[in-house]
Amino acid sequence: MDVPPVSDNPLMDELGLTLPEPIEICDVTLRDGEQSPGVVFSREEKLEIAHLLDELGVDIIEAGFPVVSRDERECVRAVARAGLDARVCCIARAVLGDVDAAVECDVDMVSVFVATSDLHLEYKYKKSLNEVVRCAIDAAQHAKDHGLVVRFAAEDATRTPIPRLLSVFREAQAAGVDYVSIADTVGILNPFTTQHLVRTLREQLSIPLCLHCHDDLGLATANTLVGAACGVRQLHATVNGIGERAGNTPLEELLLGLRLHFGVDRYDLSVLTRLSKLVERCSGMAVAKNKAVVGENAFAHESGIHVAAIINHPRTYEVFDPSVVGASRRLVIGKHTGKRALAHITRQMGYELSDECLCMVLGRIKQCTELKRGITWDTLQRFIEESMREIENRSGK
After folding, report:
1. How many independent structural domains does the chain possess?
2. Are residue 196 and residue 80 in the same domain, yes or no?
3. Alpha carbon of residue 336 to chain centroid
4. Nearest Cα to 304, choosing from 352, 254, 353, 358?
5. What CATH number does residue 352 fall under?
6. Which positions ≥6 away from 326 have C-beta within 8 Å?
7. Which DSSP state fits 214?
8. 147: Cβ–Cβ under 8 A, 6 or more apart, which residues?
9. 110 and which of 102, 131, 170, 192 could share a cystine (Cβ 3.0–4.6 Å)?
10. pLDDT tens digit string along 364-397?
């Protein structure tokens, strides 16, 4: 794959950053992604998405929330029994019945979650911290007794005082859970606070950390990458960044960031465009044209200066080759198209146009685009034919 090495990024090369922990990716599309308003995945859709995530090579697939409904339980069980290489996870409240539902689904891992911030304790639970943590520890131990890998997740961890969060995580660690998870439930983290929080927890705990970021402030990818750089083991993401409110860390952005900045190359990134389109279709949530990595315009070029450089060497205006993520480059005809770019495009269409004809076609293109009309290939072909006829008529042939 034509992915630039780390040396293509001189600033990262100068810093010499490496990941202190071997990371693993937990994709939460089928659970948190489905919490997007109006999104419901059928059993068949969950299986199709899970198989493609497995082809990509994600380490863990969070398949759902079994206690929600009988249908949800069947969906989670179907994914768990699909013969995937990835471990299958589900979530559970700090309730023994939720854990029993997870056990019935044959999952490998369960994430027992409990909120730890003052806001949630007072307005959601109306209980003390000790009460809710005790319930969560009991649920976690119940899951361990049934042979499950257990992730202990602190909901709204990033609005919880660090000494309190440390105390809760130490209790979970002593209870024998396998991971503790920082949930940035309302997306309040920034890269600086992420660094401080993760480093503080990592210094005080011996248990692997997980990081689950929401994108309310548009910082989820940056925060997750910083978390990885500071020692988070398990990174959470969703395809296309779907999820409740503003969504989650986009999987495609996270994987490209890990590859380009830290050299993590064990995931098959060529699956990403197919996966993005599948989730877009199943969720009904359109991907923005300018979305990083998988958007329609991610590898589209119109500016004459840019296209001219791209023709000489694609990397002048592309940080990685589109084939890396299973996409293709697109040269767009529009107001900013230059003569050289047009000559290249028309040559690909089978025309060898004179300078006079190219200028005439460009004039028609600019006039059309200034009226905010799109230029399709059929329109371009019509402009070429009209310009050629006009030149021919002028010459009297």
Report:
1. 2
2. yes
3. 31
4. 358
5. 1.10.238
6. 269, 270, 271, 272, 273, 274
7. B
8. none
9. 102
10. 888 886 656 557 777 888 888 888 888 888 876 5
